Amino acid sequence: MIPQAAVTEDRNFDDIAHKFAKNIYGSDKGEIRQVIVWQDLEQALDMLNADQTTLQVLDAGGGLAQMSQKIAKLGHQVALCDLSSEMLQLAEQEIEKNQLLEQYRLIHSPVQEIDAHLDQPVDLMMFHAVMEWLADPKPALEKVLEQVKPGGIASVMFYNHHGLVYKNVVCGNIPHVLDGMPHRKRFKLQPQKGLIPADVYQWIEDAGFEICGKSGIRCFSDYIGNMQYMGDYQLEDVLALEQQLCRQEPYLSLGRYIHVWARKKHEQE
């Protein structure tokens, strides 16, 4: 296993919240991510009978609440938690613009302390693209998983170590990989470490969950070169390819991110 540099403290995006919003969500990469994760969440919502009841949803480390707003539009209640006050302010502006404020509660807090702000367990918990920015991701994941009621669902997305290795190799950064991919300060919006998928799956199962589905996020698009005349295709073709193969191995495990969703077992199960 190729080692990687450790993250020494949790990342707060107050300093680059506006840039984060533009570069992450306002991009083709962001579009692919939204489409694939939403397909998984639609299955999760069906399992929760979301068309028959109002769900209580936790968007932990939810940033701009792009995904949870889609759920709020269906009539559900969302608690949005984030460490960055700037991100929360930007999220509030978007939520208000979409006339969804009545369905939101905004919580300025580290996810590790979310239990102090909730008075009941939730039906659906989303923890997307947070762990790779944390100094110690496992206890943070365990804390947010504790907030899910039996029979509820957790939606977890994380930056994939295997995808990070593969991307560096494709780009010719082989000495960097052999050195353990040490932190490079100039990449402010790119996580500097990924998580081992098998570890994350085990943490989720150890917390009493049964994994229902997995999807690779950007299994292909991030590895396509920029050379002229290499092929004739459009973004729509790339998105179709991602949708067709992102839930099949070996492509799933090479996604830059992996989305996994799981149902919390009842004690008697």
CATH superfamily, by name, is: Vaccinia Virus protein VP39
- Proportion of β residues? 15-25%
* Average pLDDT figure: 88
Helix content: 25-40%
What is the SS-derived class? Answer: alpha/beta
State Rg. Answer: 18 Å
Give the CATH architecture. 3-Layer(aba) Sandwich
Number of helices, counting only DSSP H or I runs of 4 residues or more:
9
Number of domains: 1
The rounded distance between the terminal residues' Cα atoms is 35 Å
Q: Name the overall outline.
A: globular
**CATH topology annotation:** Rossmann fold
Query: Unreliable runs, pLDDT <50, ≥5 residues?
Result: 1-8, 11-20
CATH class categorisation: Alpha Beta
Major β-sheet profile: 7 strands, mixed
Quick summary of this structure?
The protein has 269 residues and is of the alpha/beta class. It contains 9 helices and 7 strands, in the order ααβαβαββαβαααβαβ. α2 (28-47) packs parallel to α9.
Detailed description of the structure:
The protein has 269 residues and is an alpha/beta fold. It has one domain (13-264): Vaccinia Virus protein VP39 (Rossmann fold), CATH 3.40.50.150. Helices cover 35% and strands 19% of the residues. The protein is built from nine helices and seven strands, in the order H-H-E-H-E-H-E-E-H-E-H-H-H-E-H-E. The chain has helices at residues 17-25, 28-47, 66-72, 85-97, 137-145, 161-170, 174-178, 197-206, 235-245, and strands spanning 56-60, 77-82, 104-108, 122-128, 148-159, 209-217, 257-264. The radius of gyration is 18 Å and the shape is globular. Residues 1-8 and 11-20 have low confidence and may be disordered.
